[in-house]
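Standup notes, structure subgroup. Blocker cleared on the magnesium ion input:
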Amino acid sequence: MARRSNGITIKSERELKLMFEAGQIVAHAKSRMMDAVQPGVETRELDAIAESAIRELGGIPSFKGYNPGMTMPYAFPATICASINDEIVHGIPSRRRLDEGDVLSVDVGAIYGGMHGDSAFSVGVGEISEEAKNLIEATRESLDRGIAKARVGGRVGDISNAVQTYAEGLGYEVVRKYVGHGIGFEMHEEPHVPNFGKSGQGPLLRGGMALAIEPMLNVGTRETRVLADGWTVSTADGSLSAHFEDTVAITLNGPVVTTRLSVDGGGCDSKGV
Ligand code: MG
Ligand code: MG
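Run returned:
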């Protein structure tokens, strides 16, 4: 049994190293997909690229076959989620082709050595509008603001508040129904990591915890709806949405982002938990 603090798993240094490896596999898969994004590409082609990248590096795609508590109508059928424009998360890869001007959000996860990495990015397809560029950049920055608060001795609410304050300050709405999460031995662990909340509230952050922080920002309403396929979540008003996510280990020397490409081990191999 994993060690826990208030129900949140505490990973050993060895387990964090494995999480880092899982995260690097996810980072490679993201990089290969980003290189392939252009008008005319089908989202299922990106899915194939991600699955190949993950398996070549010894990982296992974690989304394929996923059905949380058997609550969904069917298990998720692919390695990535591909969500376009007003779609926020959980889009299913298909024959749909990317169009010039689209905002594509990709979510991808992998398991390595029994440990998980989970990450997402939004990217413009070809030339995109100023509105889309600004939204993507704001979402990316809101994630970084959240990550900066993933520190020993802080609280989950510090992360939530940093994301919300930045995003709402720019006039965006933050999706509330879908939130970030603890991660490690499972893709989804305790605690919830909302993208809204109050500083100084929520669970205490301790070394060896790991969180998937994942702001979803909308140009319009924060309200959502689920499409007829049972999985895809879109904005209720059809406005644009963007999503960034990284898996972050909390260490005594600060947050270690596992799901961005790194050449130096990222700190999980040398810094205390
Ligand atoms: Mg994800
Ligand atoms: Mg996630």
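Discussed briefly. The chain has one domain: 3-69+76-257.
Next: hand off to the docking folks.
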